[in-house]
Amino acid sequence: MQRLFLQEVATRDGFQNEARFIETVDKIAMIDALSQCGFAKIEVTSFTSPKAITALRDAEAVMQGIRRNPTVEYTVLVPNVRGAERALACNIDEANLVMSVSEPHNRSNLRMSREQSFAQLSEVVSVIGQGPVAINVSLSTVFGCPMQGDVPVGEVLHWVERFADLGARGVTLCDTTGMAYPSQVEALSRAVRERFPELQLTLHFHNTRGMALANALAAIEAGVDRFDSSLGGLGGCPYAPGASGNVCTEDLLHMLQLMGFNTGVDLDRVLAVAAQLPGLIGHDIPSQILKAGKRLDLHPIPAHVASLEKQVPSARTQELRP
Amino acid sequence: MQRLFLQEVATRDGFQNEARFIETVDKIAMIDALSQCGFAKIEVTSFTSPKAITALRDAEAVMQGIRRNPTVEYTVLVPNVRGAERALACNIDEANLVMSVSEPHNRSNLRMSREQSFAQLSEVVSVIGQGPVAINVSLSTVFGCPMQGDVPVGEVLHWVERFADLGARGVTLCDTTGMAYPSQVEALSRAVRERFPELQLTLHFHNTRGMALANALAAIEAGVDRFDSSLGGLGGCPYAPGASGNVCTEDLLHMLQLMGFNTGVDLDRVLAVAAQLPGLIGHDIPSQILKAGKRLDLHPIPAHVASLEKQVPSARTQELRP
């Protein structure tokens, strides 16, 4: 069984987008539950300014309050030197740095040019230094930018290289607004893996246009073995109201398990945690498996069928659902 | 560019599940619009008893009212001899027969045993005879039954063979409740194609567990070139309230076009028809592309980014969406 590594991002990428503040104790309880599911990595929170992203203003309290499972890496989003200092004080395993490979998207999202972002993140790397804390860089819009359109592969490779040269352990290729499609995913994944075989490569999909699971399989075809996903599909997309956000952890996991991949993650435990989400955030979530059940969650045979042999053929056709 | 054939089923498989009766003129207008989109086949309606499925009680009026495009095959669901006679009087191109390869599902859905269904459908084949009307058989639950669980591949091949022996031109492998997963789809598609290379093979997916697009790609990998899909993803699943139903035509088409397949279908025309659906049926639809737009439907650059060079780096990080 091929080993895959799943990384849960709901408590950062998901909660960040919620209008309702999730209480610190609830965040901690959820992360503690997720720590027992078998994820390779959990993105706990974000050390952005508490004023800018109030949903995650309790980053220190959450990082210090969770019970850490030594088999899980705990990563946090770090935007700048101040965030790095705060995060280091909380004994993180990994700092996740973010910038966009699209100039207009970076300016729109981070309010600075890509070069300014790179300079700022280079300082973060210096502050974190050569210690035990790993550096990952999440590159946004590598499969397309909602303002610019297509993003050249050469641009993506350029930014991967600059962060690889800085000493990043890993890079995440992010399909920020669900523009990736399977053949593109396979090609870009191959290109990055061939040129940077030593990097820990993660793929981060959104299901905005329904292709997230197909994209994950295309990435696996290209040799990718590590994926971000979000419990319940939490995490919206500002450019597509009503559309799905991050690829849903339980939907991805359910498919991968059926196909015989070894993810190390316990689907039933994940579903038990996901079931708490609607109550916690106050709205429905785009999880298909939570609604439909697992493939072999069977239904009782209707009463009228119970006595199979006594059944008489009937001209009345009740329902026809091929 | 590899040629694929898309078959639209919303006006039968979708409308059949709607609580609101869609007016005959509206059905006709929608089918006429779909006839100009480039579909290989349209499943127009069902010649079941008007009392059993009242939503499609206007089958004759619809079949006789549409303007037929000679490049499109018009197929209808035919459950029995009475339905076949009614359908033949309307000059159909193809009769679509339905039974389940799972005994409890067939009894539950059609209220008779599989052998009784087969006998009844054999009579239908006799009535239709060797004339110009083709026979297709949609086999339900070939990827799993919500009551029985797994369905042996041998069972599926057995029923395909019996209908091939009866002279059916085509067979549709139906994932009735969204239990199919990609590796299974590829294996079963290969098995059926190898054993029955002369049959017109269609795959019919539901997105109940989010895997429909991934399943379609797995089928293409196995050489399948023909798919049912439903405009707007119309057509619910009685076993999973709230979950998606049929694979959504525009979502499937959008992905296939991005990947370079030649479907012959005009996505913009399809989207224009799909946009009318919520008003017609009175509720939201699970179409992702209708909500999110096509991949390259770009968004304006926000005003604060307009003057790129004047931008000053800011410690305030607005949003971070990798």
UniProtKB/TrEMBL annotation, chains A, B:
ATP-binding listed as a keyword: no
One GO BP annotation of this record: L-leucine catabolic process
Top-level taxonomic group: Bacteria
CDD domains in alphabetical order: DRE_TIM_HMGL
Pfam family, one: HMGL-like
Domain (Pyruvate carboxyltransferase) ranges: 4-271
Gene Ontology molecular function, alphabetical: hydroxymethylglutaryl-CoA lyase activity; metal ion binding
Keywords: Lyase, Metal-binding
PROSITE patterns (UniProt xref): PYR_CT (PS50991)
Protein family (similarity comment): Belongs to the HMG-CoA lyase family.
Entries under NCBIfam families matching the protein: PRK05692.1
Name of the protein: Hydroxymethylglutaryl-CoA lyase
Native species: Pseudomonas taetrolens
